[in-house]
Queuine tRNA-ribosyltransferase
Amino acid sequence: MYTLLKTEKRARRGRFETPHGTIETPVFMNVGTLAVIKGAVSSMDLKEIGCQVELSNTYHLHLRPGDKLVRKMGGIHKFMNWDRPILTDSGGFQVFSLAKIRKIKEDGVTFNSHIDGSSIFMGPEESMRIQSNLASTIAMAFDECIELPAERQYVEKSVERTTRWLVRSKNELDRLNAKEDTINKKQMLFGINQGGTYEDIRIAHAKEISKMDLDGYAIGGLAVGETHEEMYRILDVVVPHLPQDKPIYLMGVGTPENILESVERGVDFFDCVLPARNGRHGHVFTSRGKINLNNKRFEMDEKPIDEGCECPACKHYTRSYIRHLFKAKEMLALRLCVLHNLYFYNKLMEDIRKALDEDRFHEFKENKLSEWSRGQEPVEK
């Protein structure tokens, strides 16, 4: 159940009760594609850096180790030793982004595994069965993520099919949740709004799926090549047409700046591989902008990654030492930078919630954007 605690214009401060604990929103979900954060980050680490929700990938876990194996091991929470909420995406985005050859029909999609090329079929029922085997807290409905730019006629047909797939996803999950041997009988379902960059299609779809009274609603098909301005435009027109008494999730977003702008437009949930991926390459976020620790100017820098930061990396190590670890190709370099970046994101969300609690979010947002741009440390190539 989602409780809207307060608003500041369209920005929302909420609380979402789930079978695996309460989520304070707005929230950033830490992405652990294969039930692990890349960079040697453990479930215990996630608690230390303030992670509320972990996100795993249906498609990848179906391929390895296999959702049936995870089920036999007691479900994803027990498997990865994480007792807080987990959201699993439907696998739809990976089908459309990774598969070089795919065949879309009303039943679902036939495509080839990116691992061994074997043929795989996935539709709404298959996606729900996989996610039920994983026993995540929140399951995502199976949808088609449309490539941008896309012709209006194709987008209209695709969105209509995504709506039909949502109905099938809901019916199948209801059936699975009622089964005696289901691990998580209270698994929640989020539907996904699609429509490319066509405002009228987005609005019509939002109105249609809102009738289904789902546990939450996501906005998909953004952050896939369109400009930030286009994304904000779509959020401006779509968010008001989604249920205001349910959490709203912007999929695959994004930069700290994207998050602030989207919170201002009424978004509650975020996820993105950006902080972990950047960290694994030595690109770290600071209160003065992003820096690249591989640069020579950090060779003898005795400061932590970000002064005042309370993450495990900043409390114990210098920029100089972490740069040395990267140059020596030591795994610890990746671990420390991923920990720092995820802490940075989780702390940003905590600060956003505090600002909303104190009716000063707009001021907080403007100060942060100014801080990051004005005081940014130059990034050398």
